[in-house]
UniProtKB/TrEMBL annotation:
Pfam families noted in UniProt: CMD
Gene Ontology molecular function, alphabetical: peroxiredoxin activity
Protein name stated in the entry: Alkylhydroperoxidase AhpD core domain
Organism: Rhodococcus wratislaviensis (Tsukamurella wratislaviensis)
Swiss-Prot/TrEMBL keywords: Oxidoreductase, Peroxidase
Amino acid sequence: MPRLREVPRAEVADEKILFFYDRLFGPDKDPAVDHGTIHATPGDWWTVFAQSPDVFRHAVRGFSLYRNVTLDPLLRELGQARAGYARGSQFVFSQHCKQMRSLGAPEEKIAALPHWQVSDCFSALERAVLAYTDGLVYDGGRVPDEVFAVLKAHLTDPEILQLTYITTLYDMHATMCRALRLEFDDRPELIAEVEIPAGVEVRDLSADLSGE
């Protein structure tokens, strides 16, 4: 379950939210109860974001942004998918792998996203986009000049700005999905103490490892 309450259809007054409820779930469904979008996702991103119509409207305007940008859509999706992977969002990574596929990306590229550094299936520009994405997500915007130089050699300044904005936008969405446990990021914490089996004596590990 997501960490915030889902807003049922009966409580929605905003026409924009109702439009997406109808379009993604169907006009006869209450998506806060009857989960499942036409894209085979749970859909609780929409019902949780409906908590704030202003946030909802701002977010969906952001989704429509890249319909009009000049950046190659495959490069855009490469950055978005890698951002999802780097941020650890199953939802963002999964959705944008599918989007890459719909745009004609070969399966070998999609499969190589987690280990792009040692894959030879990406072009020099694609490798620069992936390295740039890692700099944005993993290193908080710390990007080597050499990586940026490859982007400058292949893309216009507006296209680099578009790539930067869209990639960091989806870093934000990946972070929010994890924090609020939305969609495929509704998962328990993976890092937890492993219990010692019953009957095993608890000892000071430092003493055991020192050989004393």
